[in-house]
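Work Package 3 (structural annotation) set out to generate three-dimensional models for the target panel prioritized at the project kickoff. During this period the team completed the workflow that converts sequence records into discrete structure tokens, so that structures can be stored uniformly alongside our sequence database. As a representative example, we reproduce one entry of 172 residues exactly as it appears in the project archive.
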Amino acid sequence: MIMVGVVAGLVGLVVAHAVRRRDAAHRDASTPIEMINPHFFGRDSQGRAYTLGARQAARDEQSFQRVLLSYPTVTLDTEAARPSTLTADSGVYHEDSRILYLKGHVRAANAAASRFATDEAIVNTRTGTVTSPTALSGQTSAGDVQSQSFDVFDKGDTVVFKGGVHARLNSH
């Protein structure tokens, strides 16, 4: 009788342990993957290096191709003499399309002392282009500019301002 009791007790402990492990594994699987101070490195279609960092990142529970970012920073063409850096309050990076959506106090700056501010920006890390459907305010060595939206091409060499463009150019 004692032997049967010991075996029954051991079987009960094994079953209870298996149930606890299964419940813990299920909880871990439903928890999104989170990273503190992540940094991603990549190259665009023309081989130019870029970096993407944030204070915190988490995989979206609905789609693992989406990475939710807190205070993201993206630097385009990092190996060039004049890399461009964009920062924001939040962002969403789509790994499948390699598009980064920035939102909230988006700021852009480069080594040529150009600074731009907007509320939203879309960075295509595949092509290296930046677009924004929202108003822009910018200061450059050539002067100040405001517009309703903008597109940036050619590593920042070409900027197209759209809608209600106002500019003040400095004389040199």
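The CA atoms of residues 142 and 171 lie 8 Å apart.
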